């Protein structure tokens, strides 16, 4: 449940999508790493907040207690700490596992690919953070998914908001995960959860509400920097100062048109410490389709300066910022688009079918195809002793093989091959 | 335990190796499929004989009982049956899981990649089987791993041997797995296991010994076809007839020089029903190295005509033959070779570093690198406001970046960029 096989046409489409994403990561100078699907259970413990219950655990069959990785970020942090690496730009494309309620039509699975790009190291503020947003912008533009918006916020600003609204620090994280629902449910429901479930006072919730419903650009940042309450809060001031710097860099990249500073963005995970962001598609391409696929967020990420230190025996910190591309949701869109357009995805790359028009010519086919393979040419033949020529040509048409190399008795005698263009039916002897 | 992280240089080397294998699979017209790492436990039950105890099971956290896939063959058979596919040529490159005793220096891990190519469908005998052997031959030749030998046998011949030696059918499979050890331990030890553990009579074991120590080519096949006992056995006769046909096709492919018909080859898995084969490297390239990596088999496979039927509610059979490339062992060899040669594997593909020689030029770098990225050029820059030029050029040399695009105050004024060839130190303004 919640997993799926990819048949050839889907696997081919997905390979192309992953290749486009990896091309962008490489363009930004990232190196690939690979880590096991299995992690020690203790590695994953305490990293995912309320979502920890969704971790798949392996049966205790003796030896170490294991679990399946929940994302690629925690294994990356574990890898950095284990190898004492303090500076690295890496990408990782691999499957992760979550015992979530699957919603397959929306592209939500229990086994799914993540495509992560992260920058680890102590650098001048906001330069790597800006690059992560540039990457999201490049990938979503390259894939031509339609209009999109990248929402940006900072955990320090949110925490500053909570502080000036009188929330005790012990409730920051849990309040964060309630605020994060503002893109799915109305403010009144969020407020009810804050008061009813999280135990905030209605007044405190209302004060939070005044802030977290704000969104804008540089103007909003400037306004909040002047806000009498927020400007008194050290964390919020730091966050707002960095947000201003970030917008400066994004302006140089020429991408602020698709960026929104949005105080309702909170992101669920515990480990974020600074900038956070999330990209959403603004509308479906196929608005005329009766039930457009609702896809939600297609990329997300942020800064997590404390995670690596959790794996270091001496607690040495390595600041990190990274982005994860929601490849499964994008894949759902591309798949639906391919279906709607009736476009046929070729699942193989075969260039030529080695065919015979008469019987008793299997040996000739085997010899010729062997020569083609050895010359690096992608070739197929029928696994029958005496196939009919018509069936062989039909197979080319069905599977999109452009050429047929035909050896008949005459060709054998003359020492030639008849090469047929399947679409035009033109033939040359060579 | 038994798993590992791949750091960037290893990941880059492995990606190149996998690409070479996949290129061969595509050359033979195979399509990719992808199946989940998780399978239902019941899917894996009863498919792996004595090795079943090595299957990783997931904890029962409610819902279905799951396990990690043990190979890619059983999931492929499950996929064919589930989708009622009777004809398919597919490849699959993915990780599989075995709770085995790891032997990391020999390339044996608990999590490792498999690269499988399989042909499913009812065809004329031995044509797809011959293609599988051709593929092994092509891949091992392409990778230049040194001399190799592909051992071939047929389960029907082995079963025929067991029958004419007086072994009850109930003991065929277990006797098979003992015979399979003949490449690692001497005949006397194999015999002792047959008699002591498997309960065969010493005389029967000796009769088996006379057959399973034979190996050769077409001459041996002919001789056994005349063998007074074996020629009376229907299964053996069928197997030998097909083996003769196989050698005919392999002769047309021109690869019999590296093929040996070897009656000691048995292969451990339950599901084989016909031709079986295994490729071994004959010697290590670096014989002068003090402790050459012992790698054993680097590819194996065979025919399994009954497996798909086990997943079909009506037991409908789909004959299959396939090959699995032992990529981890090959990777161990290539890695050791790269180390020995001191060859440096570049882990990134960055073409140009955007650099500045003076302070206060971060904005210029951000603008230029953004243009380069948008033009599809692989570019990096330092995440510092004012890095030293020497450090920037040193980084290019260390990581193999061939070009530096330098913007200084003069270049900004003139509206040009200084492009420096890192190796030759030549510079052009453009």
Automatic annotation (TrEMBL), chains A, B:
Q: Taking every annotated instance into account, which residue ranges of this chain make up the domain Aminoacyl-transfer RNA synthetases class-II family profile?
A: 1-357
Q: Which InterPro entries match?
A: aa-tRNA-synth_II, aa-tRNA-synth_II/BPL/LPL, Anticodon-bd, Anticodon-bd_dom_sf, His-tRNA-ligase, HisRS-like_core, HisRS/HisZ, HisRS_anticodon
Q: What Pfam families does the record point to?
A: HGTP_anticodon, tRNA-synt_His
The protein's matches in PROSITE patterns, at most eight in alphabetical order, are given as:
AA_TRNA_LIGASE_II (PS50862)
User: For this protein, what is the EC number?
Assistant: 6.1.1.21
Q: Where does L-histidine bind?
A: 71-73, 98, 114, 118, 267, 271-272
**GO biological process assignments:** histidyl-tRNA aminoacylation; mitochondrial translation
GO cellular component, as recorded: cytosol; mitochondrion
UniProt entry tagged with the keyword S-adenosyl-L-methionine? no
| Gene3D superfamilies the record matches | Anticodon-binding domain (3.40.50.800), Bira Bifunctional Protein, Domain 2 (3.30.930.10)
Gene Ontology MF terms? ATP binding; histidine-tRNA ligase activity; identical protein binding; RNA binding
Q: Which UniProt keywords apply?
A: Aminoacyl-tRNA synthetase, ATP-binding, Ligase, Nucleotide-binding, Protein biosynthesis
Catalytic reaction annotation:
tRNA(His) + L-histidine + ATP = L-histidyl-tRNA(His) + AMP + diphosphate + H(+)
What family name appears in the similarity comment? Belongs to the class-II aminoacyl-tRNA synthetase family.
What this protein is called in its record is histidine--tRNA ligase
